[in-house]
């Protein structure tokens, strides 16, 4: 007896798009119904922005050779925008872990759906939330004096593309962390480096002002080249080799996170 033919490629693509859209709506509804986690994570970069601008702004501006507080606002905003993405993706790790521990993933495994759509829904939803969070933090920054008058339209588009690419990379890493965590609390703890690494980067002070033993920690990590690239794009200054390093980090983390997440998700549950 001959086996039934496999679905045509257009049909498979249509199924994947339909199921991924359904999972995306599901995750966005969860975020809307339970906004406290997103708001709590979003408060961290906003509070740091206000703290460093209004408490340390004049002193820090003098330390980086600026004229007044506005120079330091321009300096720290790019780093805080990327920190916002790291904060938002912690919520993704927690959400994925909840799905794993509450049994919904096990149920999805038994249903006739496009299996990768479960992860795609989480990833796309997280990227959208990251972009909205960045817009909100950026609006607060503009309200307290941040300006980007020297950036061209092309630089603005490049900055937006970098933010989306960075959010995609960190989201896939966060999804992997959520899949391997036994509970939501462990997922939150495992994803904590995504918000701590910006504190060890050039987000708040230039790398060349750091102690010599500490500089490699700040230089050889994904946030510093991404921050320097975003800072150059938003302020209309040079980015040097940081642009290629930032893209390489983003692509590398996205591929690593994707392979890790899909491998863990597709493995048979123990």
Automatic annotation (TrEMBL):
Top-level taxon of origin: Bacteria
Membrane topology summary: Multi-pass membrane protein
Keywords, comma-separated and alphabetical: Antibiotic resistance, Cell membrane, Membrane, Transmembrane, Transmembrane helix, Transport
Pfam families in the record: ABC2_membrane (PF01061)
Location of the ABC transmembrane type-2 domain: 36-268
Transmembrane segments: 34-57, 72-97, 118-144, 156-180, 192-214, 243-261
Subcellular location: Cell membrane; Membrane
InterPro entries the UniProt entry points to: ABC2_TM, ABC2_TM_bact-type, ABC_2_transport, Nod_factor_ABC_transporter
Main localization (coarse): membrane
Family: Belongs to the ABC-2 integral membrane protein family.
Protein name: Transport permease protein
Organism of origin: Streptomyces olindensis
Lineage: Bacteria, Bacillati, Actinomycetota, Actinomycetes, Kitasatosporales
